[in-house]
Amino acid sequence: MAKAKDGKSELEDLPGVGPTVAQKLKDAGINDIISIAVLSPSELAESAGMTEATARKAIQAARKMANLDFKDATEFMKAREDMSTISTGSKNLNNLLGGKGIETGALTEAYGAYGSGKSQIAHSLAVHVQLPKEKGGADGMCVFIDTEGTFRPERVRQIAQALGLDAQETLKKIYAARAFNSDHQMLLAEKIPDLINEKKLPIKLVIIDSLTSHFRAEFAGRGRLADRQQKLNRHIHNLLRIAEQYNLAVYITNQVMANPAVMFGDPTTAIGGHIVGHASTYRIYLRRGKKGSRVAKMIDAPNLPESETVFWLTTNGLVDEEKAAVADEDEE
After folding, report:
1. Which of 65, 81, 79 is nearest to 32 (CA)?
2. How confident is the model at residue 108, as a pLDDT?
3. Residue 309: phi, psi to the nearest 5?
4. Mean pLDDT of 236-265
5. Contact 101/107 with Cβ under 8 angstroms?
6. Mean pLDDT of 198-217
7. Tell me, what's the pLDDT at 294?
8. Which of 257, 311, 326, 330 is nearest to 121 (CA)?
9. What pLDDT score does 10 carry?
10. H helix or E strand, kind and range, residue 112
11. pLDDT at 322 over 80
């Protein structure tokens, strides 16, 4: 069988997949064998324009080539050792996340009300990912999908200069795009593998700020809730697949609403329901604290306890103690 330069099998090696079909798959964001292996026959048939019988044969071949059998836990431990972490800029917040920041291969969700710090963390991560690993980065670049007009290159410049980085070079390593509706948002996410495979960019962080904004606006009313959740489910699982396949971190922000069923305590609830809640590897709730601070609470994690921490937003980024120069609170 022909092999790609990186040693991976070509799509054309699969039965029923020639150059034309392979191009259709790439146009649909399906770039490699493992992406084929995890599809259903109907999904592959629709994307490639082939019959379900042919799609089933291609999937079976892909699964053999991708070696999707059971593995013992030592192999999973080895994969965990290849994982990188990206500092948020705050030691307190890093510790809440397990010690060093957000993980590659995982999806970290931050939800909270307007002004709680979600977008500020996003900007800080977009800069810190570019640092070498020994300084809390991942030696990589960032993709920033902006759905609410929150991306501010000026903020990136401030944080970069505070870290002693060249601001212009830092901006060049952030690929930002404004998503104007949910379809556009999903399309931008599907193009991320192209940046990695075709342009050979070392993407190590994907930010979506915010995940649910367009879905919430376009699917209003209970009658359209099922359609919204189905579409959102496809989107978020594509993000998870990209995170795992390319060993990159995904950071998403999420909007909130007040749950009328909560009579006592904080009624704040994240948008997206169980679809988003179950898909997020790490889930953090952000809120304003005393004296201009922000409080972060770990809501869900596979290996961490529920706990809280405090940090502040300053011109230079996130810090762990109160400062006089607090960043503009109008930018979340």
Report:
1. 65
2. 98
3. -150, 170
4. 86
5. no
6. 95
7. 97
8. 311
9. 75
10. strand 107-112
11. no
Coil/strand/helix, residue 249? strand
CA distance 69 to 209: 36
Residue 163, φ and ψ in degrees, nearest 5: -90, 0
**For residues 271 and 174, what is the distance between their CA atoms, to the nearest angstrom?**
27
Quote the distance between the C-alpha of residue 112 and its chain's center: 17
**CA 30, 34, 39: angle at the middle one, nearest 5?**
65
Pull the structure tokens for residue 294.
């922000």
- Helix, strand, or coil here: 163? coil
Report the topology of domain 11-66: DNA polymerase; domain 1 (1.10.150)
Question: Does domain 79-319 correspond to CATH entry 3.40.50.720?
Answer: no
Place of tokens 């109008």: 330
Lowest mean pLDDT among 85-99, 171-185, 260-274: 260-274
3-class DSSP assignment, residue 313: strand
Residue 308, H or E segment: strand 308-314
Query: Per-residue confidence at 262, pLDDT binned at 50, 70, 90?
Result: low
For residue 265, the model assigns a pLDDT of 67
Q: What is the pLDDT of residues 215-229, one digit of tens each?
A: 999 998 778 888 888
Phi (first) and psi of residue 238, to 5 degrees:
-65, -40
Summarize the confidence of residues 171-176 as an average pLDDT. 98
Please give the structure tokens belonging to residue 330: 């109008």
Query: What does the pLDDT read at residue 185?
Result: 97
Domains of the chain, by residue range, sit at 11-66, 79-319
Amino acid identity, position 46: E
- Residue 260 is predicted with a pLDDT of 66
- Whole-Å CA distances, 261 to 88, 254, 274: 34, 20, 17
Place of tokens 């011109």: 315
Note whether 106 and 251 are within 8 A (CB): no
CA-based Rg of the chain, rounded to a whole angstrom? Answer: 21
pTM of the model: 0.81
Please state, in angstroms and rounded to a whole number, the distance separating the CA atoms of residues 274 and 119: 23
